[in-house]
Amino acid sequence: MTGGDAELAGAIARGDRRALARAITLVESTRPDHRARAEALLQPLLPATGKSVRIGISGAPGVGKSSFIEAFGLMLLAGGHRLAVLAIDPSSKRGGGSILGDKTRMEKLARAEAAFIRPSPAGLTLGGVARRTREAMLLCEAAGFDVILIETVGVGQSETAVADLADIFLLLLAPGGGDELQGLKKGIVELADLLIVTKADGDLIPAATRAVADYRHALGLLASTSMGWTPEIHAVSAFEGHGMVEVWQAIERHRRLAAETGEGVRHRRVQVQAALWSEIGEALIDRIKHDPTIARLVTELEPKVAASTLTPSAAARTILEAFLKK
Question: Do both 227 and 300 map to the same domain?
Fold first, then answer.
């Protein structure tokens, strides 16, 4: 580690938010020299990680994720917590940048000294999370943030990857009930530990009440988790601040059960193993894509695959065998 990076690590350990932002920029870089620096930076910080509550949050666009996070986050700050929000935005297809700007949608939270908000583009990574979200989360923990919120894309992609990052998964739902219940993806609902019906205020209170009843009935058809947790459903109003304390109490009940059963430790071990194999796969693909010899082979094989004269699996095997022979 260079002297500058050692100073950066020290600043992170002291909770310096500017240093944290610089470090996350470093870990998100795809430059090989930056990757080496990022790995060297993270290594001495690892003993200070793993002590936070990791909360995954998902929901369709317009459900009010940012409003919920701000109201929930302000409640946590009032309780003495330090909060980091890793908001994964859909990426611009032209520039690859973050296009929603969650920081501007959480103005009060963004101004709080005990909060840190980092929007990151999802890029080409599927699963609703960015490739380096795990490393960003570790940096936030090393900086002393004891609650990490990971807001996923929520644009119809398979967002189950957040389960490989979070201790508990919250799925936000609009107060539609009935018809919306029919359209829910079973897989993501089965992953959710808490269902949160948003916008439960004003004229939407009756709809929210019906939605809670509908979802509660649906949850009754699902089996409890391996540690015996039965998913809960809560109605909240970010506008009025209602329901936030109850959501946090539910999260704490989940944490206690995970600690008592040992499921929390096991779950994180499984997550780390999943991260290892994911990194191996993505690093291998990167190496293959940037190999000049393989690039020429790909150029030869792609037209055959496009013309349906060669199957994708046969082309992939040819490419992999050629790479392994090098």
Answer: no
